[in-house]
Prior knowledge:
By secondary structure, the protein is an alpha/beta fold. 35% of the residues lie in helices and 22% in strands. The strands form 2 sheets. Strands 13-12-11-10-6-9-8-7-14 form a 9-stranded mixed sheet. It has a 5-stranded parallel sheet with strand order 2-1-3-4-5, sandwiched between helices.
Amino acid sequence: MKRLNWGMIGGxxxxxxxxxxxxxxGLDGAFSFVAxxxxxxxxxxxAYAERLGIAPDRAYGDWREMLAGESARDDRIDLVxxxxxxxxxxxxxxxxxxxGFNVLCEKPMTVTVEEGEEIVRLSQSTGxxxxxNYGYSGYSLVRxxxxxxxxxxxxxxxxxxxxxxxxxxxxATDADNPRIRWRYDPAQMGVSAQLADCGIHALxxxxxxxxxxxxxxxxxxISALPSRQLEDDAMVNFRMDGGATxxxxxxxxxxxRMHGLTLQVFGEKGGLRWAQEQPNxxxxxxxxxxxxxxxxxxxxxxxxxxxxSRVTMGHAEGMPLAFANIYTDLAECIRAQKEGxxxxxxxxxxxxxxxxxxxxxxxxxxxxxxxxxxxWVDALPPMYR
Length: 385
């Protein structure tokens, strides 16, 4: 099967997220990395793209040059990944969708709710795919959790507890480190730092696994380092449209926590617990029963989990492979689009522009709640109310 053409904007040399996208996109042989505008410094971006094997005429100096160049080609890219600073996501995503390209945008998809609604409408009107990289939803056992909830193993979900807390921004001497400082700059991050950067992964996962959306929330923010204009720790209580109650804690000052993405789901028939740092194990406890360890790759898992598992049981399977599942989903949907057929239903689980919009609406609602000392506010985007 011929590979699809893939390009990337941002994610250049030294990038934290770029390598994970390059590994994930190429893992299953679905995409060829053929075009890139990888750095805000044009010459550096071109040079790095060529070192990665991109032809000189597709090693672009910036995203506008890339948009013009790819739009003029018969072999244009089938998917573009946007891994640039948050404040640029909307403009670039909008331009590529309008030009007829499929897009995978790093989170947050936009910095305002209004921009998010515009992207959702644009994706719908153009018929192009617009995905958002909530990549941790690609883990095999996260998809198995979703399948267990959907088939009723837990009964009615009562409480969801989501965390994404680390301690990598706790040292006050790092406050002026440019790799950290931008994350607390409203000009680049928008209205929120830690919740918009990390917390929304956990919030999306809560919705992804339970099949429920956040409707109302109450939040408390702090900036433990007084020099920061935006929060570095947040607690959010939320209610979901299927009756579940949620608790979310996200922090950048939790010294001793390395990554800290965990999800617990408690239902009337049992509970589930999963942690990203031990992604091969899922703890399942039936009501009145003992803890059971579900291993990734073992027999009898859901088709959704099997489809997202690549290596034999007991071997490590990490973040780039979770990202690869998002890319595999998108490849199947793009091929189906080209061939005029329905995609494999299991491939439609990738996080969409609608998910990106709901996340940003929740972030803005949390900011408003924190400013009102924890008052409960509507978390739905206006277009879904």
